[in-house]
Amino acid sequence: MFEHNNQNEEMNSTETTDTDVTQKEEMQRTPKQKKPFKGRGFLNTVGAGIIGSVLTLTVLPQTDYYQHLAQPSVERSADNGQANTSSNSGITPTSVSTGAGGDVANIVEDASQSIVGIVNYQSQSRMGAAEATPAGTGSGVLFKKEGDSAFIITNNHVIEGASKIEVSLYDGEKTEGELIGADPLTDLAVVKIDGKYADNLLEVGDSSALRAGEQVIAIGNPLGLDLSRTVTQGIVSAVDRTIPVQTSEGESELNVIQTDAAINPGNSGGALLNSKGELIGINSAKISNSGVEGLGFAIPSKDFMPIVSEIIKTGKIERPYIGIGMKNLADIPRSYLPNLPQSVESGVVVANIDPTSAAADAGIKEGDAITEMDGKAVENVADLRRQLYGGLKVGDKIDLTVYRDGKKMTVSLKLTSNSMMNG
């Protein structure tokens, strides 16, 4: 599993929050079922926390890289993280000087003024009264100014669950930040502060031009604000890696830049810069297994720019929505699926249904095993989401191949929007 480098981990653990942990929204079960599903109790147990009411994810390429690691533990980089390039994002960031000849010291001196500390305050009940207390810290990057407002990119897991967000600036001044929107499945969030605090903004570079071996610089706040704006240097170890993560809205995958620049708890939301001093990644995660070194990960600019642009514009990310909670078929003992043909070895099992969703209208039932979408095999939960968000959009019709009580059938439905569940 991948954990985010979040110092929140001790006080407000987000280990399973990239798709399955904090602030889970459990869907209501279908009230009427003529034939109870034998595995209902099991699914309630193993599916809790994985089943989010929103199926949302960026389409990401697959890699078999992590299949060769013995269950690595990846932690998010916070002290307690699609479309194409930024040219279509509509965001015009303001540049900072990178110094003569791209000198590292000059780059760091200028860029550090755009790196902020973020403290996540959460409400705690003490002596019968609610009190906001620090639950963890992380990093953020000032990258855009518009009118009287300035915008900060950070990781969703840095600010998730916050009742108050405090932003610590380069000169030590602190101000309260306003959460514009967040997307757990891409681990991105945007925070707004008064524009008077944003004299220096980082220019966003093109991560698609990166090559393995290029030098990169990471800047963030490892282990808290006492070590704010710590600078580490390394190289791009690989581009376009895909790592599995657990979030508060279910299992997800992130397309990331792999680097050997030191990334530690508290670095989440911080900057990964290229040799020109441009922001080409948001540091998000690392592998923390004993004996593992130099495996840090950052969300590339070609992925985060379209997401943060939509968040700034609408406050949310809209994606097609089926309305089911799922569990990997391979994770469920066959004794709970006695009628499923032995030849069916991969797919997802429906463990929960939103009663107002397209799935409910189409007659999908708990215990159904979904093995194909529009004729293409579904391997697991992540694969279904990858297909769902790969080329489909709200309003499209899809055909699901389903096994129910041992019988194979096709169920057709029209995709709705995940925003509908929010009213």
Task: Describe this protein's structure.
The chain has 423 residues and is mainly beta. It has helices at 8-11, 40-47, 104-111, 156-159, 301-314, 358-362, 381-390, and strands at residues 5-6, 74-78, 115-126, 129-146, 149-154, 164-168, 174-183, 188-194, 215-220, 230-247, 250-259, 271-273, 279-287, 296-300, 320-321, 324-328, 348-353, 369-373, 376-377, 397-404, 407-414, 416-417. The chain has a six-stranded antiparallel barrel. A six-stranded antiparallel β-barrel has the order 3-4-5-8-7-6. The longest helix has 14 residues, at 301-314. It is globular, with a radius of gyration of 22 Å. Residues 8-34, 46-73 and 80-101 have low confidence and may be disordered.
Radius of gyration: 22 Å
Helix and strand sequence: EHHEHEEEHEEEEEEEEEHEEEHEEHEEE
Low-pLDDT runs of 5+ residues are: 8-34, 46-73, 80-101
What is the topology, as strand order, of the major beta sheet?
9-10-11-14-13-12
What is the overall pLDDT average?
78
SS elements, strand count: 22
Q: What distance separates the N and C termini?
A: 33 Å
Note the main sheet.
6 strands, antiparallel, barrel
Specify the helix fraction band: 10-25%
- Measured by DSSP, the beta-strand proportion falls in 35-45%
Structural class label = mainly beta
- Helix count, DSSP H or I runs of 4 or more residues: 7
- Envelope shape: globular
